[in-house]
Automatic annotation (TrEMBL):
This is Unannotated protein. Residues 249-440 form the Carbohydrate kinase FGGY C-terminal domain. It comes from freshwater metagenome. It holds the Pfam family FGGY_C. One of its GO terms (molecular function) is ATP binding. SUPFAM superfamilies: Actin-like ATPase domain. The keyword Nucleotide-binding applies. Keywords: ATP-binding, Disulfide bond, Kinase, Nucleotide-binding, Rhamnose metabolism, Transferase. Belongs to the FGGY kinase family.
Length: 466
Protein backbone atom coordinates (compact mmCIF):
# COMPACT_ATOMS: atom_id res chain seq x y z
CA UNK A 1 0.00 0.00 0.00
CA UNK A 2 1.18 3.51 -0.87
CA UNK A 3 0.00 6.45 1.22
CA UNK A 4 0.04 10.19 0.52
CA UNK A 5 -1.22 13.33 2.29
CA UNK A 6 -3.31 15.89 0.41
CA UNK A 7 -4.11 19.44 1.49
CA UNK A 8 -7.05 20.97 -0.40
CA UNK A 9 -7.88 24.61 0.31
CA UNK A 10 -11.08 26.19 -0.92
CA UNK A 11 -12.17 29.80 -0.60
CA UNK A 12 -14.43 29.01 2.38
CA UNK A 13 -12.98 25.80 3.82
CA UNK A 14 -10.03 23.44 3.82
CA UNK A 15 -9.31 19.82 4.52
CA UNK A 16 -6.44 17.39 4.93
CA UNK A 17 -6.78 13.82 3.70
CA UNK A 18 -4.87 10.56 3.50
CA UNK A 19 -4.92 8.84 0.13
CA UNK A 20 -4.10 5.13 0.06
CA UNK A 21 -3.53 3.08 -3.08
CA UNK A 22 -4.32 -0.62 -2.77
CA UNK A 23 -6.34 -3.31 -4.52
CA UNK A 24 -6.73 -1.36 -7.77
CA UNK A 25 -8.34 1.71 -6.21
CA UNK A 26 -7.62 4.89 -4.25
CA UNK A 27 -9.28 5.26 -0.85
CA UNK A 28 -9.57 8.61 0.87
CA UNK A 29 -9.75 9.38 4.57
CA UNK A 30 -10.42 13.00 5.44
CA UNK A 31 -8.65 13.62 8.73
CA UNK A 32 -9.35 17.29 9.29
CA UNK A 33 -11.78 19.92 8.02
CA UNK A 34 -11.93 23.59 8.87
CA UNK A 35 -13.83 26.69 7.85
CA UNK A 36 -12.33 30.09 7.11
CA UNK A 37 -13.48 33.33 5.58
CA UNK A 38 -12.16 36.69 4.50
CA UNK A 39 -11.69 39.42 7.06
CA UNK A 40 -11.99 43.14 6.47
CA UNK A 41 -9.26 45.38 7.86
CA UNK A 42 -9.93 48.96 9.09
CA UNK A 43 -9.10 50.36 5.63
CA UNK A 44 -11.75 48.18 3.99
CA UNK A 45 -9.31 45.73 2.37
CA UNK A 46 -10.38 42.08 2.22
CA UNK A 47 -7.72 39.73 3.59
CA UNK A 48 -7.29 36.03 4.22
CA UNK A 49 -6.68 34.94 7.80
CA UNK A 50 -3.42 33.29 6.79
CA UNK A 51 -2.31 32.43 10.32
CA UNK A 52 -5.54 30.52 10.85
CA UNK A 53 -5.32 28.76 7.49
CA UNK A 54 -1.74 27.61 7.92
CA UNK A 55 -2.24 26.58 11.56
CA UNK A 56 -5.18 24.41 10.50
CA UNK A 57 -3.20 22.88 7.63
CA UNK A 58 -0.36 22.08 10.02
CA UNK A 59 -2.73 20.59 12.58
CA UNK A 60 -4.37 18.41 9.95
CA UNK A 61 -1.07 17.15 8.57
CA UNK A 62 0.19 16.28 12.05
CA UNK A 63 -2.99 14.36 12.79
CA UNK A 64 -2.78 12.55 9.44
CA UNK A 65 0.87 11.63 9.99
CA UNK A 66 -0.05 9.95 13.28
CA UNK A 67 -2.24 7.37 11.53
CA UNK A 68 -0.42 6.84 8.22
CA UNK A 69 2.98 6.29 6.66
CA UNK A 70 2.99 8.94 3.95
CA UNK A 71 5.49 8.99 1.12
CA UNK A 72 4.77 12.65 0.38
CA UNK A 73 2.39 15.56 0.80
CA UNK A 74 1.01 18.02 -1.72
CA UNK A 75 -1.10 21.17 -1.58
CA UNK A 76 -3.74 22.59 -3.89
CA UNK A 77 -5.88 25.69 -3.43
CA UNK A 78 -8.06 28.26 -5.14
CA UNK A 79 -6.25 30.30 -7.76
CA UNK A 80 -4.91 33.86 -8.20
CA UNK A 81 -4.06 34.79 -4.58
CA UNK A 82 -0.47 34.97 -3.36
CA UNK A 83 1.95 36.12 -0.68
CA UNK A 84 5.19 38.10 -0.80
CA UNK A 85 8.56 36.79 0.43
CA UNK A 86 11.47 38.99 1.48
CA UNK A 87 15.11 38.45 0.58
CA UNK A 88 15.47 37.08 4.13
CA UNK A 89 12.94 34.38 3.20
CA UNK A 90 10.22 35.76 5.44
CA UNK A 91 6.56 36.12 4.45
CA UNK A 92 5.79 39.83 4.49
CA UNK A 93 2.56 41.81 4.35
CA UNK A 94 -1.01 40.61 4.34
CA UNK A 95 -2.51 37.97 2.05
CA UNK A 96 -5.14 39.90 0.08
CA UNK A 97 -8.34 38.17 -0.98
CA UNK A 98 -9.29 38.14 -4.64
CA UNK A 99 -12.70 39.70 -3.95
CA UNK A 100 -11.04 42.91 -2.74
CA UNK A 101 -12.51 45.78 -4.76
CA UNK A 102 -9.04 47.26 -5.40
CA UNK A 103 -8.64 44.68 -8.17
CA UNK A 104 -11.51 46.08 -10.24
CA UNK A 105 -9.82 49.47 -10.39
CA UNK A 106 -6.42 47.94 -11.20
CA UNK A 107 -7.78 45.66 -13.92
CA UNK A 108 -9.47 48.55 -15.72
CA UNK A 109 -6.28 50.61 -15.57
CA UNK A 110 -4.00 47.83 -16.80
CA UNK A 111 -6.34 46.74 -19.59
CA UNK A 112 -6.54 50.37 -20.75
CA UNK A 113 -2.74 50.53 -20.69
CA UNK A 114 -2.01 47.27 -22.53
CA UNK A 115 -5.17 46.42 -24.45
CA UNK A 116 -7.10 43.17 -24.12
CA UNK A 117 -5.77 41.82 -27.39
CA UNK A 118 -2.14 42.00 -26.25
CA UNK A 119 -2.88 40.39 -22.92
CA UNK A 120 -4.92 37.54 -24.40
CA UNK A 121 -2.66 36.84 -27.39
CA UNK A 122 -0.07 35.02 -25.29
CA UNK A 123 -1.83 34.21 -22.03
CA UNK A 124 -5.14 32.96 -23.44
CA UNK A 125 -6.71 33.64 -20.06
CA UNK A 126 -10.24 34.79 -19.32
CA UNK A 127 -10.50 38.41 -18.23
CA UNK A 128 -11.41 38.40 -14.56
CA UNK A 129 -10.80 41.46 -12.43
CA UNK A 130 -9.02 39.45 -9.76
CA UNK A 131 -6.39 37.71 -11.93
CA UNK A 132 -3.02 37.91 -10.23
CA UNK A 133 -1.51 40.32 -12.73
CA UNK A 134 -4.12 42.92 -11.72
CA UNK A 135 -3.61 42.18 -8.03
CA UNK A 136 0.13 42.75 -8.39
CA UNK A 137 -0.55 45.97 -10.30
CA UNK A 138 -2.83 47.07 -7.46
CA UNK A 139 -0.07 46.31 -4.94
CA UNK A 140 2.69 48.40 -6.51
CA UNK A 141 2.54 51.13 -3.86
CA UNK A 142 2.46 48.74 -0.91
CA UNK A 143 5.54 48.42 1.28
CA UNK A 144 5.58 44.63 0.89
CA UNK A 145 5.61 44.87 -2.92
CA UNK A 146 8.46 47.36 -2.85
CA UNK A 147 10.58 45.29 -0.46
CA UNK A 148 9.64 41.80 -1.71
CA UNK A 149 12.10 39.46 -3.36
CA UNK A 150 9.47 37.06 -4.75
CA UNK A 151 5.76 36.33 -4.70
CA UNK A 152 4.34 32.82 -4.47
CA UNK A 153 0.88 31.44 -5.10
CA UNK A 154 -0.69 30.05 -1.93
CA UNK A 155 0.12 26.32 -2.41
CA UNK A 156 3.69 27.26 -3.29
CA UNK A 157 3.81 29.46 -0.20
CA UNK A 158 2.99 26.43 1.96
CA UNK A 159 5.52 24.34 0.05
CA UNK A 160 8.08 27.06 0.78
CA UNK A 161 7.26 27.07 4.50
CA UNK A 162 7.77 23.30 4.69
CA UNK A 163 10.70 22.83 2.31
CA UNK A 164 12.37 26.24 1.90
CA UNK A 165 12.03 25.97 -1.90
CA UNK A 166 10.90 29.06 -3.81
CA UNK A 167 9.25 27.92 -7.03
CA UNK A 168 5.89 28.31 -8.77
CA UNK A 169 3.77 25.46 -10.13
CA UNK A 170 2.54 26.02 -13.69
CA UNK A 171 -1.18 25.15 -13.42
CA UNK A 172 -1.70 27.87 -10.83
CA UNK A 173 0.78 30.18 -12.56
CA UNK A 174 -1.41 30.06 -15.65
CA UNK A 175 -4.26 31.64 -13.68
CA UNK A 176 -2.15 34.76 -13.09
CA UNK A 177 -2.67 35.98 -16.69
CA UNK A 178 1.08 36.55 -16.77
CA UNK A 179 2.13 33.20 -18.24
CA UNK A 180 2.49 32.26 -21.90
CA UNK A 181 0.11 29.31 -22.21
CA UNK A 182 1.79 27.91 -25.33
CA UNK A 183 5.35 27.91 -23.96
CA UNK A 184 4.40 27.27 -20.30
CA UNK A 185 6.80 30.07 -19.27
CA UNK A 186 6.36 33.52 -17.75
CA UNK A 187 5.51 36.20 -20.33
CA UNK A 188 8.43 38.52 -19.51
CA UNK A 189 7.47 41.05 -22.16
CA UNK A 190 3.89 41.37 -20.89
CA UNK A 191 5.00 41.62 -17.26
CA UNK A 192 7.46 44.39 -18.06
CA UNK A 193 4.92 46.23 -20.26
CA UNK A 194 2.61 46.15 -17.24
CA UNK A 195 5.30 47.84 -15.17
CA UNK A 196 5.46 44.93 -12.74
CA UNK A 197 8.84 43.91 -11.35
CA UNK A 198 9.82 40.77 -13.28
CA UNK A 199 12.29 39.75 -10.59
CA UNK A 200 9.31 38.96 -8.33
CA UNK A 201 8.50 35.93 -10.52
CA UNK A 202 10.18 32.71 -9.41
CA UNK A 203 11.25 29.72 -11.47
CA UNK A 204 8.48 27.38 -12.62
CA UNK A 205 7.88 23.68 -12.10
CA UNK A 206 5.37 21.13 -13.41
CA UNK A 207 2.93 19.03 -11.37
CA UNK A 208 4.61 16.00 -9.85
CA UNK A 209 7.93 17.75 -9.24
CA UNK A 210 9.70 16.65 -6.06
CA UNK A 211 10.50 19.96 -4.37
CA UNK A 212 12.23 18.75 -1.20
CA UNK A 213 11.36 17.39 2.21
CA UNK A 214 9.67 18.88 5.24
CA UNK A 215 12.15 20.47 7.61
CA UNK A 216 11.53 22.15 10.96
CA UNK A 217 8.32 20.37 11.92
CA UNK A 218 9.34 17.28 13.93
CA UNK A 219 6.11 15.32 13.41
CA UNK A 220 6.43 15.81 9.63
CA UNK A 221 10.18 16.06 9.03
CA UNK A 222 11.43 13.92 6.18
CA UNK A 223 8.09 13.65 4.34
CA UNK A 224 8.63 14.54 0.69
CA UNK A 225 7.03 17.76 -0.57
CA UNK A 226 5.65 17.17 -4.07
CA UNK A 227 3.94 19.69 -6.33
CA UNK A 228 0.31 18.86 -6.92
CA UNK A 229 -1.51 20.36 -9.85
CA UNK A 230 -1.79 23.17 -7.35
CA UNK A 231 -4.73 25.04 -8.83
CA UNK A 232 -7.54 23.06 -7.24
CA UNK A 233 -9.43 22.86 -10.52
CA UNK A 234 -6.35 21.39 -12.21
CA UNK A 235 -6.27 18.69 -9.53
CA UNK A 236 -10.01 18.15 -9.94
CA UNK A 237 -9.73 17.67 -13.70
CA UNK A 238 -6.84 15.25 -13.18
CA UNK A 239 -9.31 13.32 -11.02
CA UNK A 240 -11.92 12.81 -13.77
CA UNK A 241 -12.02 9.31 -15.30
CA UNK A 242 -12.93 10.46 -18.82
CA UNK A 243 -14.29 7.88 -21.24
CA UNK A 244 -13.64 9.82 -24.45
CA UNK A 245 -12.56 13.33 -23.56
CA UNK A 246 -12.97 14.47 -27.18
CA UNK A 247 -16.76 14.52 -26.66
CA UNK A 248 -16.91 15.04 -22.89
CA UNK A 249 -16.96 18.22 -20.84
CA UNK A 250 -16.76 18.93 -17.13
CA UNK A 251 -18.26 21.24 -14.55
CA UNK A 252 -16.27 21.52 -11.34
CA UNK A 253 -19.10 22.65 -9.10
CA UNK A 254 -18.43 24.52 -5.89
CA UNK A 255 -18.21 28.16 -4.85
CA UNK A 256 -17.23 28.66 -8.48
CA UNK A 257 -18.34 26.50 -11.38
CA UNK A 258 -15.48 25.82 -13.78
CA UNK A 259 -16.98 24.73 -17.09
CA UNK A 260 -14.80 23.32 -19.84
CA UNK A 261 -12.92 20.58 -21.66
CA UNK A 262 -9.47 19.00 -21.46
CA UNK A 263 -7.31 19.60 -24.53
CA UNK A 264 -3.82 18.99 -25.83
CA UNK A 265 -3.49 22.62 -26.92
CA UNK A 266 -4.75 26.10 -26.07
CA UNK A 267 -7.32 27.96 -28.16
CA UNK A 268 -6.45 31.65 -28.54
CA UNK A 269 -8.24 32.51 -31.78
CA UNK A 270 -10.29 35.66 -32.31
CA UNK A 271 -13.39 33.59 -31.55
CA UNK A 272 -11.85 32.37 -28.27
CA UNK A 273 -10.90 35.95 -27.39
CA UNK A 274 -14.42 37.18 -28.18
CA UNK A 275 -15.92 34.43 -26.01
CA UNK A 276 -13.43 35.20 -23.19
CA UNK A 277 -12.41 31.53 -23.03
CA UNK A 278 -9.56 30.71 -20.68
CA UNK A 279 -6.68 28.28 -21.31
CA UNK A 280 -5.29 27.14 -17.98
CA UNK A 281 -2.60 24.51 -17.80
CA UNK A 282 -3.13 20.95 -16.63
CA UNK A 283 -1.28 17.74 -15.81
CA UNK A 284 0.98 15.99 -18.35
CA UNK A 285 1.05 18.91 -20.76
CA UNK A 286 -2.71 19.29 -21.04
CA UNK A 287 -4.71 22.51 -21.21
CA UNK A 288 -7.98 23.18 -19.40
CA UNK A 289 -10.08 25.14 -21.88
CA UNK A 290 -12.81 26.62 -19.72
CA UNK A 291 -14.71 29.58 -18.36
CA UNK A 292 -15.43 30.57 -14.77
CA UNK A 293 -19.10 30.80 -13.86
CA UNK A 294 -20.13 32.09 -10.46
CA UNK A 295 -21.34 28.94 -8.74
CA UNK A 296 -22.78 28.06 -5.36
CA UNK A 297 -21.33 31.32 -4.03
CA UNK A 298 -24.74 32.86 -4.69
CA UNK A 299 -26.56 30.36 -2.49
CA UNK A 300 -23.78 30.26 0.11
CA UNK A 301 -24.07 34.02 0.55
CA UNK A 302 -27.87 33.80 0.74
CA UNK A 303 -27.56 31.19 3.46
CA UNK A 304 -25.03 33.33 5.34
CA UNK A 305 -27.41 36.30 5.25
CA UNK A 306 -30.31 34.16 6.43
CA UNK A 307 -28.18 32.69 9.26
CA UNK A 308 -27.22 36.17 10.44
CA UNK A 309 -30.93 37.06 10.60
CA UNK A 310 -31.65 33.94 12.67
CA UNK A 311 -32.87 31.54 9.95
CA UNK A 312 -30.43 28.71 9.24
CA UNK A 313 -31.75 26.81 6.20
CA UNK A 314 -29.81 23.61 5.52
CA UNK A 315 -28.87 22.72 1.96
CA UNK A 316 -31.04 19.58 1.85
CA UNK A 317 -34.06 21.64 2.92
CA UNK A 318 -33.24 24.32 0.35
CA UNK A 319 -33.13 21.74 -2.44
CA UNK A 320 -36.51 20.37 -1.38
CA UNK A 321 -37.95 23.90 -1.26
CA UNK A 322 -36.47 24.63 -4.68
CA UNK A 323 -38.09 21.49 -6.11
CA UNK A 324 -41.43 22.69 -4.78
CA UNK A 325 -40.84 26.12 -6.35
CA UNK A 326 -39.93 24.89 -9.85
CA UNK A 327 -42.79 26.87 -11.34
CA UNK A 328 -40.87 30.08 -10.50
CA UNK A 329 -39.02 30.88 -13.74
CA UNK A 330 -37.00 34.08 -13.18
CA UNK A 331 -33.42 33.92 -14.46
CA UNK A 332 -30.45 36.06 -13.41
CA UNK A 333 -26.92 36.35 -14.76
CA UNK A 334 -24.73 34.64 -12.14
CA UNK A 335 -21.67 36.49 -13.45
CA UNK A 336 -23.10 39.98 -13.02
CA UNK A 337 -20.53 42.05 -11.05
CA UNK A 338 -23.32 42.94 -8.61
CA UNK A 339 -23.02 39.44 -7.13
CA UNK A 340 -19.22 39.32 -6.78
CA UNK A 341 -18.53 40.88 -3.34
CA UNK A 342 -19.68 39.28 -0.10
CA UNK A 343 -22.78 40.81 1.47
CA UNK A 344 -26.56 40.68 1.46
CA UNK A 345 -27.06 38.40 -1.55
CA UNK A 346 -30.86 38.04 -1.28
CA UNK A 347 -31.23 41.83 -1.46
CA UNK A 348 -28.86 42.01 -4.45
CA UNK A 349 -30.83 39.36 -6.32
CA UNK A 350 -34.07 41.20 -5.60
CA UNK A 351 -32.53 44.50 -6.72
CA UNK A 352 -31.24 42.87 -9.91
CA UNK A 353 -34.70 41.54 -10.73
CA UNK A 354 -36.57 44.75 -9.97
CA UNK A 355 -34.17 46.84 -12.05
CA UNK A 356 -35.00 44.60 -15.02
CA UNK A 357 -38.72 44.26 -14.45
CA UNK A 358 -38.42 40.59 -13.46
CA UNK A 359 -40.42 38.78 -10.80
CA UNK A 360 -38.19 38.81 -7.73
CA UNK A 361 -37.90 35.71 -5.52
CA UNK A 362 -39.27 36.11 -2.02
CA UNK A 363 -38.88 32.72 -0.32
CA UNK A 364 -35.79 30.55 0.22
CA UNK A 365 -37.17 28.02 -2.27
CA UNK A 366 -37.66 30.70 -4.92
CA UNK A 367 -34.16 32.05 -4.37
CA UNK A 368 -32.71 28.54 -4.65
CA UNK A 369 -34.59 27.58 -7.83
CA UNK A 370 -33.70 30.95 -9.38
CA UNK A 371 -30.04 30.23 -8.73
CA UNK A 372 -30.19 26.61 -9.96
CA UNK A 373 -32.01 27.49 -13.17
CA UNK A 374 -29.71 30.43 -13.80
CA UNK A 375 -26.59 28.32 -13.29
CA UNK A 376 -27.85 25.65 -15.71
CA UNK A 377 -28.52 28.27 -18.39
CA UNK A 378 -25.07 29.77 -17.78
CA UNK A 379 -23.54 26.30 -18.15
CA UNK A 380 -25.28 25.78 -21.50
CA UNK A 381 -24.17 29.16 -22.81
CA UNK A 382 -20.59 28.49 -21.73
CA UNK A 383 -20.46 24.98 -23.21
CA UNK A 384 -21.91 26.25 -26.49
CA UNK A 385 -19.16 28.88 -26.64
CA UNK A 386 -16.40 26.36 -25.89
CA UNK A 387 -17.79 23.87 -28.41
CA UNK A 388 -17.80 26.58 -31.09
CA UNK A 389 -14.22 27.62 -30.30
CA UNK A 390 -12.82 24.08 -30.08
CA UNK A 391 -14.90 22.43 -32.80
CA UNK A 392 -16.00 19.71 -30.41
CA UNK A 393 -19.48 18.28 -30.03
CA UNK A 394 -20.22 17.60 -26.38
CA UNK A 395 -22.44 14.63 -25.53
CA UNK A 396 -21.59 14.06 -21.87
CA UNK A 397 -20.92 16.37 -18.91
CA UNK A 398 -19.02 15.24 -15.83
CA UNK A 399 -20.12 17.21 -12.76
CA UNK A 400 -17.65 16.93 -9.92
CA UNK A 401 -17.01 18.48 -6.56
CA UNK A 402 -19.47 19.23 -3.79
CA UNK A 403 -22.09 20.54 -6.20
CA UNK A 404 -22.36 17.12 -7.84
CA UNK A 405 -24.37 15.94 -4.81
CA UNK A 406 -27.22 18.29 -5.76
CA UNK A 407 -29.48 15.94 -7.74
CA UNK A 408 -31.94 18.71 -8.58
CA UNK A 409 -29.27 20.93 -10.13
CA UNK A 410 -27.81 17.92 -11.95
CA UNK A 411 -31.19 17.12 -13.53
CA UNK A 412 -31.85 20.76 -14.43
CA UNK A 413 -28.40 20.91 -16.03
CA UNK A 414 -29.10 17.78 -18.10
CA UNK A 415 -32.47 19.20 -19.15
CA UNK A 416 -31.17 22.65 -20.14
CA UNK A 417 -27.93 21.46 -21.77
CA UNK A 418 -29.66 18.58 -23.55
CA UNK A 419 -26.95 15.99 -22.76
CA UNK A 420 -26.35 13.29 -20.18
CA UNK A 421 -24.84 14.40 -16.88
CA UNK A 422 -22.58 12.00 -15.01
CA UNK A 423 -21.66 12.81 -11.42
CA UNK A 424 -18.44 12.58 -9.54
CA UNK A 425 -16.16 12.07 -8.14
CA UNK A 426 -17.30 14.38 -5.35
CA UNK A 427 -13.71 14.35 -4.14
CA UNK A 428 -12.18 14.82 -7.59
CA UNK A 429 -9.69 17.40 -6.29
CA UNK A 430 -8.35 15.06 -3.62
CA UNK A 431 -8.20 12.17 -6.10
CA UNK A 432 -6.28 14.36 -8.56
CA UNK A 433 -3.91 15.58 -5.86
CA UNK A 434 -3.17 12.00 -4.77
CA UNK A 435 -2.86 10.83 -8.39
CA UNK A 436 -0.10 13.33 -9.16
CA UNK A 437 1.81 12.29 -6.03
CA UNK A 438 1.42 8.62 -6.95
CA UNK A 439 2.83 9.26 -10.42
CA UNK A 440 5.73 11.18 -8.88
CA UNK A 441 6.44 8.29 -6.51
CA UNK A 442 6.28 5.69 -9.29
CA UNK A 443 3.30 3.99 -7.66
CA UNK A 444 1.37 4.41 -10.93
CA UNK A 445 2.74 4.91 -14.42
CA UNK A 446 0.85 7.93 -15.70
CA UNK A 447 -2.38 9.91 -15.57
CA UNK A 448 -4.30 7.35 -17.64
CA UNK A 449 -3.44 4.62 -15.15
CA UNK A 450 -4.28 6.89 -12.21
CA UNK A 451 -7.67 7.72 -13.74
CA UNK A 452 -8.39 4.01 -14.10
CA UNK A 453 -7.80 3.65 -10.36
CA UNK A 454 -10.06 6.64 -9.66
CA UNK A 455 -12.84 5.12 -11.78
CA UNK A 456 -12.78 2.10 -9.46
CA UNK A 457 -12.94 4.33 -6.37
CA UNK A 458 -16.38 5.96 -6.43
CA UNK A 459 -20.00 5.44 -7.51
CA UNK A 460 -21.49 7.73 -10.14
CA UNK A 461 -25.06 8.75 -10.98
CA UNK A 462 -26.41 9.59 -14.43
CA UNK A 463 -29.07 12.14 -15.33
CA UNK A 464 -30.57 12.11 -18.80
CA UNK A 465 -32.41 15.07 -20.39
CA UNK A 466 -36.17 15.12 -19.92
Amino acid sequence: MHQFLAVDLGATSGRVAIGSIADGAISLSIVHRFAHEVIEDPSGSLLWNWDLIFSQVLHGLKEAAKVSKPISLAVDSWAVDYGFISSDKEIIGDIHAYRDLRNEIASKALIAKLGKERIYSTTGIQFLTFNTIYQLYASKELAEYISADKFLMLPDLINFIFSGVISTEVTNASSTQALNTSTRTWDKELIELAGINYSLFSKLHEPGTLLGTVTGYPELDGIKVVAAASHDTASAIAGIPFGNREVEAYISSGTWSLVGIESERPFTSEAAFAANVTNELGVEGTVRVLKNVTGMWLLEECRRTWRESGSDVEMAELIALAEAARGFQTLIDPNDPLFAPPGDMPKRIVDYCRERGLAAPSTPGEFAITIFNSLAHAYKKTLDEIAAVSGRKINLIHILGGGSQNDLLNQITADICGVTVKTGPVEATLFGNIAVQAISAGAVKDLAEARALIKNSFTSKEFTPR
